[in-house]
Amino acid sequence: MGTPWWQRWGPVWLVWLLILTGAYFGMGALLEQYQAPQSAHLSQEGRLVLKRSQGGHYWLKGEINGHSVWMLIDTGASSVSLSSQLADRLGLARGEEVRMNTANGVARAWETRLHTVALGDLQLTNVRAVIAENFGNENMVLIGMNVLGRLRVEIDDNTMTLSPRGSGEAG
Fold first, then answer.
1. Domain identity same for 45 and 82
2. What residue ranges are annotated as transmembrane (predicted)?
3. In CA terms, which of 18, 51, 62, 84 is 20 to 30 Å from 94?
4. Residues 59 and 3 in one domain
5. Positive or negative CA dihedral for 110, 114, 120, 123?
C-alpha cells in the first residue's frame, strides 16, 4: 500500500491555503489603499482643494455639528446622507420618514437638519439631510448637491476645488 493521500497532498493543500489567505489579506489592504481618502488643503485664496483618490472619489475630513467625520463628495446625490448609526452617535433627531432612490434600490430614511456642516473653513448652516437605513458605510457622510449647490465647485483633471459662491454665501 502507498502513502496515505493526506501525507502526499496535505503539504500542497497547506501551501494553497497560505497563498489564498495571503491574497485575501493583501487584496483587502490594496482595496483599502485604493479607496483611501486623499489630501485636502485650504489654498491661500480660501478655497478647499481636494485630490481625487485612487478609487476616483473626492474625500475630506469635515465636521457635522462640531463632530469630525469623513465626507465623500457625490455630485450624483441630491442631499447629504448618513447612516442611522452615525446619526445616533451625533445625536440627530429623526423627522418625517421618507423613501430614497439609491443605486441599490429604494431605501427607508428620515429627514433631519444639521445645524452646521464644515468642509475645511467653508461653513454652511441649517442643512437638510437624510438618515438612511442600511447605509453602505456607517462612518461616512455623503455630501450631495444640496450642499454643493451652495458652493462654487470646479473640477480640473484630478482636483476638485470648493469655494464660497459670491460674497460669503457659504456662511
1. yes
2. 12-31
3. 62
4. no
5. positive
For residue 149, give the C-alpha cell. Answer: 449647490
Q: DSSP of 65-89, one letter per residue?
A: TTEEEEEEE-TT-SSEEEEHHHHHH
* Burial class for 55, CB neighbours closer than 10 Å (0-12, 13-18, 19+): middle
Residues 48 and 9 both lie in one domain: no
Range of the domain at 115: 40-164
The number of CA neighbours under 13 Å toward the Cβ of 21 is: 6
Largest CA distance in the chain: 89
Say if residue 53 is in the same domain as residue 81.
yes
Does the residue 106 lie in any domain? yes
